[in-house]
Amino acid sequence: MARSRKYRKSDRNFISKVIYHSGSILKKTGHFFVRVFKIFDQKLTLMIVPHSQGKVFNLRTNVFALVLGILVVTGIAASFIYFNRVNLELYAKNKTEHEEHLETQANLDELRSASNDNVQVIKRVQKTLSQFSPLSANQTNQISSATSKNSDLSSLFDTQDITSGTLKEVSDLRQATSYLESTIQPLEQIGKMLENQNTLFTDIPNIWPIKNGIGHISMKFGQTIHPIKQQWYIHKGLDFSTWRSGDPVVATANGQIVTVGYDDSFGNYIIIKHKHGIYTRYAHLSTIKVFKGDSVTQGQVIGTIGNTGIVTGPHLHYEVHIGSDVVDPAKYINLK
């Protein structure tokens, strides 16, 4: 019991102290606000005295109103400075955007010029392709009829109308791309045709039989007087002369060596079998650089010019046979 009473007495003393200190704090706080109120409520008189002998203006106020006025003026000045800075930043941003707009406009003008140049190039491509491919010729006829109605690139191609809101130049470039894609197949056909023609030309004797095209024709094909026997006879080939021995002789087409031999009339000679029943003979050689059965390609060196056999000087006797017929080699030289 004694301990319980002791605890109750301690609680009452603690509560009393708390109430006392709380009241003391509230009292001090009240005194502080009263002092502040008295300070702000102090009366002030502002006098405006002109330099001339005019009337003096008296403005009565208190500290609170003065401080509030200063704060308001300071806030207005700060707001003015802030918004002025914002306006300057917006002006600089607008100026930059304007310059970017001008640059974009210049790029757009350049794009339009490039688009127009592409149109002209495509027209030339159309004209060129029409000379090689029937498909391209049909496309060119359609394009030409459209051009008579409208000079725009959109009318040059038989496609859908330009989508609203799309730049004309962009649409033109798309249509140009579409046309160029359509020319891929004709170009591939032309490429295959040229490749086949090139293969055909390498299979037909059509180049100068002396390397690098040197020398000249010293005797043509046909009826002439034999330079030694002095009698009329049929010269069955062409004679090529460089006025010296040792210049390289080349195969005039792809083929296979079928004969390598010597004859009292032809001297050292070579016969090459080509496709399409064509044979070529190379006679009066000083040296032979191939063997029977070898495969040779057009332009490959097969021997050198000499004066073996019945000759009056070093030269190459060159013949072209188609089946059993002897033909004029001059009709095939530089056939390309």
TrEMBL record:
It comes from Treponema rectale. Gene3D superfamilies: Glucose Permease (Domain IIA) (2.70.70.10). Residues 234-329 form the M23ase beta-sheet core domain. It comes from the Bacteria. One of its GO terms (molecular function) is metalloendopeptidase activity. Keywords: Hydrolase, Membrane, Transmembrane, Transmembrane helix. The keyword Lyase does not apply. SUPFAM superfamilies: Duplicated hybrid motif (SSF51261). This is Murein DD-endopeptidase MepM/ murein hydrolase activator NlpD. The chain crosses the membrane at residues 63-83.
